[in-house]
Design goal:
It is built from two helices and twelve strands. It has helices spanning 2-29, 32-111; strands at residues 121-129, 137-140, 153-156, 160-168, 173-177, 184-189, 195-201, 205-212, 222-225, 237-245, 252-258, 268-272. A six-stranded antiparallel barrel has the order 1-2-5-4-3-12. It is rod-shaped. The chain starts with a helix and ends with a strand. The relative contact order is 0.11.
Length: 275
Amino acid sequence: MCMKKEINKKIQSLLFLLVVVVLLTFLNKFGYIYQVKSFTVYSINSVSKTFQGASNEFYSFVDTIKSIDEFKNENMKLRKENLEMNYKILQFEEIKIENSLLRKQLIFSQNSCLDENCLNLVMGDITSRGPDSYGDYVVVNIGKKQEIKEGYAVIASGGILMGKVVEVFESYSRIMLVTDSESSVNSITQKTRANGISRGSYATGIKLEMINQAESLTEGDLVITSGLENQIPRGLVIGRILKINESANKIFKTADLELFTDFNKVEKVFIVKND
C-alpha cells in the first residue's frame, strides 16, 4: 500500500515537471520568457542602481564629514600657529623696549662717571604697587640675592630719581617713591645752585623746600640730587621748577616741581648699588 502511494507521488512529480517543461517551451516560443527575463534584469538593474546611488551618496557624506574634520583640525592648527607668532612678535617688541631702556641707561651711567667710578646699576621689574597708598611705594623683584641694601637710590631710565629702598627681602625690595609725603631728598638747583630739600606732596608731586630767601630760583631750572646724603649719588634728576612760592614774612621759600616721568607707567627700574 505504501509502495503504491510512493509510486503515485513519483508519477505526479514527473507529470508536474513535464507540464512545466511544456509550459516553458510554449512561453519561450512566443517570447514570453524573454519578456520575463528582461523585466527581471531591468528590475535587478534598477534596484542595483538605486543601491549604488545610495551607496555613493553615503560615501560622499562620509567624505564630507572627514573633510570638515580635517578643515577644523587645520583651522585649529593655523590659529595655534597664529597665536604663537603673535606671542613671539610681542616678546620681540618687549625685548626691543628693554634694550632701548638699557642703552639709554648705559649712556647715562657712562656720563655719570667720576674719576673712572661709574654708577653700579641693577635692573629690576616693578611687581606691585601700594594698594592702600597708591603712588607712595612700589615693589621690585630684586633683593638680598642681588646684594641690595636699604637706602639705595632707585632710578628710572635716564637717571630720574624714583625713590629709595626702604625694606629688603630675599628676592624683592620695597621702594618709597619721592612722591611719598614722608620722602625727603637733599637737592640742589642746577643753574642757581640753591640748596634745599625735595619732599613728596600728596603722592602726586614734589615740592622743593627749605630754600633761603637769599637764594635765587628760576622757573624751568632742573633740581637734582646734591650728593650730601649716603648712597644717593649726586646729579640724579628729581624734577623741574614749575612755580616759585615766596613771601617776605617767611624765612624760607618753596617751589613746586614738575616730574619728568609718570611713575605709574614705569615698568623697569634701576637700583644704584654705589656705597
